[in-house]
Specification:
The complex is a heterodimer of chains A (265) and B (334). With 265 residues, chain A is of the alpha/beta class. Chain A is built from 9 helices and 11 strands. The model of chain A has no long low-confidence stretch (mean pLDDT 94). In chain B, strand 6, helix 5 (167-174) and strand 7 form a beta-alpha-beta unit. In chain B, helix 3 (112-124) runs parallel beside helix 4 (143-151). The chains are: A alpha/beta (265), B alpha/beta (334). At the A-B interface, helix 5 of A face helix 1 and helix 2 of B.
Chain lengths: 265, 334
Amino acid sequence: MVGAVAYTPNVVPIWEGMRDYFADTGSEMDFVLFSNYGRQVDALLAGTIDVAWNTNLAWVRTVAQTDGQCRALAMRDTDTVFKTVFVTRSGGGLDGLDSLEGRRLALGSQDSAQAAILPVYFLDHEGPGAESVELVRINSDVGKHGDTGRSELDALRAVLDETADAAAIGINTWESIGREELMPGAFEAFWESPTYSHCNFSALPQVPEERTGPWLEHLLAMDWDNPDHRPILELEGLRQWVSPQLDGYASLFEAVKEQRIPARW
Amino acid sequence: MVNHGLVLDLVERVGAVARHGTVSVPLGMGDPEELGATVEAWCARTGNELVDVEGGVATVRKGRSPDPIAELPADMVPGTRLWMYTNFDCNLACDYCCVRSSPQTARRALGADRVRQLATEAVDAGVSELILTGGEPFLLPDIDELVAACTAVLPTTLLTNGMLFRGRRLEALRRMDRNRLALQISLDSATAEQHDEHRGAGSWDKAVAGIHIAREEGFRVRVAATLPYEQSHQLAPFHAFLDSLGVAPEDQVIRALAHRGVADHGIELTLESLIPEVTVTADGVYWHPVSADHEDQLVTHDIFPLQDAITEVRRRFTEIRARSTAAAQWFPCA
């Protein structure tokens, strides 16, 4: 039983497609949809679900609540190269994190790693320090860890409306608005973070590898060039499932600790 | 001033609808052409479909419309088979004829030259089977030439009532290529009564005799029955009879009576409900053989080039299916 958070109506066809893909394989699966990652992780810990499709923050909190007794099974290829992008109005004159000192930075939902937690971390470690920047927090869709992208779009609107000088958004949102190319004169990126890891399939040790192994093997066999698999991969935003890159979570573990973000909420 | 928030609105609104659902996004302030181009570019980049831009509002579909042609079984893709109405006159006047054929109907022959050109172009257009029908094709003095032009290039089926296999027409039949031609003979029932009621007294006996002759001459024979929809579940005696004539089970074809032509009842067949079968008559290209005498399903008067006609049928089919899908989505519950 796999848990996922319903952040768009398309979550239903994605997981129905996944269920069909696993049908008659010897590692059949079904799914449960949650309204937020907090309750999904609760369900994972309680054994209601065997595997959770977790964001990076949900993974960090799962690790914290299990003292590390959990496993990441797989992630999307796109999850291994996630980034945060700092953008401003074209010609806004910002050229790096230090240039944000004394300026207003719009952040997305407080539980979004890419649009709130890690931007503060990057300001502290690679910029002037978050305390020297006026943070404009836009907490829409809290509970979904920024999956809807709405708070990031609202952060961009704040920049257009000149209630913020810059916004921190995920690379996926930056791509979805066409980077600088579709709206000439609107936005430009002035700093991109190092890559970090995003979502993964998380499981507890109670689910033995004899069960997760065949499921994982079949998952990794999904093929972009197979017309039956392609729609699911497109909707879920990947070309290939890959083995997890746990090193990519180091910055978020550190950020959660520094910002004293609780392990459960 | 350009509405820079437009792309943000697109991302948010399109992201919130289910795959294949549509959403309307106001273009906002700015040059409508420039904004429309921005929406088009965003859709192309993100794999969504711009349905239209009208009245300052863009309608966008999440993802792309499913291709209705790709969803059809390969043998049902329009243009896989090419139907040709060789003529419209007939020795019978069946009371359900979908194209109003009778002895009084004008011939409107397609002619050997056009049949030959169609057969040639059909090969290049990817057609895999030719089907000749009428009217009654065996009324044509050059039917064997027409059939030869077809069988020379593709497997062919010739529809007939099977009643005219004697004299010069039998000789014409004997000149046809047994390896490339199947005959499809109309027979509606296992006994004469029902068949003759619709097709004329004595016609059942002659059709059955025709089946025997065609089989004795070495032709593959299909038998096609036209039955009212309500009788389509009472077929066991008919199949048993056809078995007794030696007609293979896969060659026993049952068609529902259509409310077309001179039929005063039957199932309604429209562009929306019919998967097209490209059909050429002397008057033009039609959606389906059942509607080859009806303006509402005329696709074009231009028979040539055949590839263009097939392309146009496929385009209209895709458009009609997309419209039907959209209409189904719009249908309100209250």
